[in-house]
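User: I'm putting together notes for a lab meeting next week and I want to include a structural view of one of the chains we've been expressing. I don't have a solved structure, so I'd like a prediction I can at least talk through. The sequence is below, exactly as it appears in our construct file.
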Amino acid sequence: MNVIIFGSPGAGKGTQSHNLSKKFNLYQVSTGALLRNEIKNKTEIGNEIEKIIAEGDFATDDIVNKLLKKIITNPLYRNRIIFDGYPRNISQAKTLDQILDEDNQSISYIFYLNVNREITEKRIIGRITCENCNKTFNEFFDKEILNNHDCGEKFLKKRKDDNKEAVMTRYDTYMKKTEPVLRFYSSKSYFHEIDGNQKIDVITGKIEQILTV
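Assistant: Thanks for the context. Below is the predicted structure for the 213-residue chain, given as structure tokens.
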């Protein structure tokens, strides 16, 4: 099965995708991770992406689609992909359908994590990611977990764009661009809206219940 999990910045897409990928043997595709990898490798595209993200905007569709097509058409990942935070707009949604259709694949489930603006701000300002295991934590809510994290403190990093001004810009941009995506998907029988303001384990339980019906 192929699964989409999308929602605003701080909705918990990465956490839920990570949990589900392990339980259901899915390959987690995070456009954010793909883009950050380009930045880390200091490629030409990476330099362009870094400037765009620093201004609170998103990488162009052309950049994202090229990176994703390589993953989608890879025989190792066919029909076992979980798309973490993609698509972000109607153009990407239509392109994804086209890429999948050309490779004789389709989407089985779509989960929209609906989170309000206040919760988004609190989650992102305190967000810390482990560069070793790719897990995401919150310095306000996960203090004990962070102190005992197996990978060690040296791998725990905060993203440069996780500041209040950039966060709110990204949130407003996301909501504006994603409204057409919600309309595009909401009528589908496999579309499920989840209250993303709840605790992580509650959200995980609801998603897993739908996937195992």
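A couple of points you could mention at the meeting. The beta strands are 3-7, 27-30, 81-84, 109-114, 127-130, 136-138, 156-157, 191-195. The two ends are 14 Å apart (CA to CA).

User: Perfect, that's what I needed.
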